[in-house]
Design goal:
- The protein has a 7-stranded mixed beta sheet, sandwiched between helices.
- It has a single domain, classed as Glutaredoxin, CATH 3.40.30.10.
- The radius of gyration is 18 Å and the shape is globular.
- It contains 4 helices and 7 strands.
- The mean pLDDT is 90.
- With 147 residues, the protein is an alpha/beta fold.
- The termini are far apart.
- The longest helix has 21 residues.
- The chain binds copper (II) ion.
Amino acid sequence: MAFTRSKLVLIAALFMAGSVQAAEVIDVHRDASCGCCKDWIKYLEANGFEVRDHVEQNMSAVKTELGVAPRLGSCHTGVIDGKFVEGHVPVAQIRELQQRDDLVGVAAPGMPAGSPGMDYGQPADAYQVIGLTKDGKDVVLADYPAK
Ligand SMILES: [Cu+2]
């Protein structure tokens, strides 16, 4: 009896550990008509995220509420672990954001061609991925060259 119960607990623990890994949730706020926003969502899903999609009437109000500095603005705004992910940010910098306590958000300002969800086979723009610190400073997390 005791053996059976501990076995069940072990199985439950393994199952929960597996499902936590498989379903890392990110909220994404976007305009209804935004095509590249949907392509970024597909990119996240292909990388193992569970996306909660929120169609918004007023994205600029959403960005203000989430603390996205206007200079960092793009189309959609994601939220993970209570921090913002603005625009077409690659997964590597979403991971870095999650690991850094000094950052409140990360952004790929504008809509750079060649960034995830903006890659339609055209020449890629050079772009930077910027972290926003708790005290309001921009730090460059990545520098992608033009291609
Ligand atoms: Cu976009």
